[in-house]
């Protein structure tokens, strides 16, 4: 699928997120991304964690996506808990809405575990979830509220879950890839299985474009 961003544009977004550049710069990138939303529904993907993912740029070292939460759009049922840990360093900017990052710790506890650690490996549109032998007890950690026009970072390997506390919510996400699988926490009795990442329907993709356009962004297929 064609990239929405050119390599030099991806580098500039990375710098804007990691170097704390002015909000006006990141708002402008939001306008550019939403102005270039593809016509094809295959570019709008239901993520298992409940948001719509629109990949904008990917190479061997990094990726940039637009994440959109719409409360009226129901995705596939989650087969694990919402608590997970990425295999990549994350930096994100909230275009609109408000999220809460709930950090957590997973302490080894074979006797009275609350969860089992699972690996998640993605090939194409399939997530392969494989239980490990590691049984843990989850303890909640600090919470961070991130509002419109705020940025945040999250290191690889840190367990967390994301709560959306407003209606329409959209973020620009930069990922710096590292080696290894992602991890998620699930019921202790979970079995190995796979989950498909399904594309949105034409109606769902149109709803994403319409909602983003309501923010004042010029959503369409042409560059800004």
How would you sum up this structure, described in words?
The chain has 224 residues and is of the alpha+beta class. It has one domain (7-213): Jelly Rolls, CATH 2.60.120.10. It has three helices and 13 strands. It has helices spanning 7-18, 23-35, 202-213, and strands spanning 45-46, 52-58, 62-69, 84-85, 88-96, 98-108, 115-123, 126-147, 151-154, 160-164, 169-177, 182-186, 193-196. Strands 4, 6, 7, 8, 10, 12 and 13 form a seven-stranded antiparallel sheet that branches. A hairpin with a 2-residue loop joins β7 and β8 (126-147). Mean pLDDT is 91; it is low at 218-224.
Query: How many domains comprise the coordinates?
Result: 1
CATH class: Mainly Beta
3D shape: globular
Sheet with the most strands? Answer: 7 strands, antiparallel
Mean pLDDT: 91
Proportion in helices: 10-25%
Low-confidence stretches: 218-224
Distance N to C terminus: 20 Å
Structural class comes to alpha+beta
Q: Give helix and strand order, one letter per element, not per position.
A: HHEEEEEEEEEEEEEH
What would CATH call the architecture? Sandwich
The number of helical segments is 3
* CATH topology group: Jelly Rolls
Radius of gyration: 17 Å
What percentage of amino acids are in beta strands?
35-45%
Topology, element by element:
Elements: H1 7-18, H2 23-35, E1 45-46, E2 52-58, E3 62-69, E4 84-85, E5 88-96, E6 98-108, E7 115-123, E8 126-147, E9 151-154, E10 160-164, E11 169-177, E12 182-186, E13 193-196, H3 202-213
Antiparallel strand pairs: 1-2, 2-3, 3-11, 4-12, 5-9, 5-11, 6-8, 6-10, 7-8, 7-12, 8-13
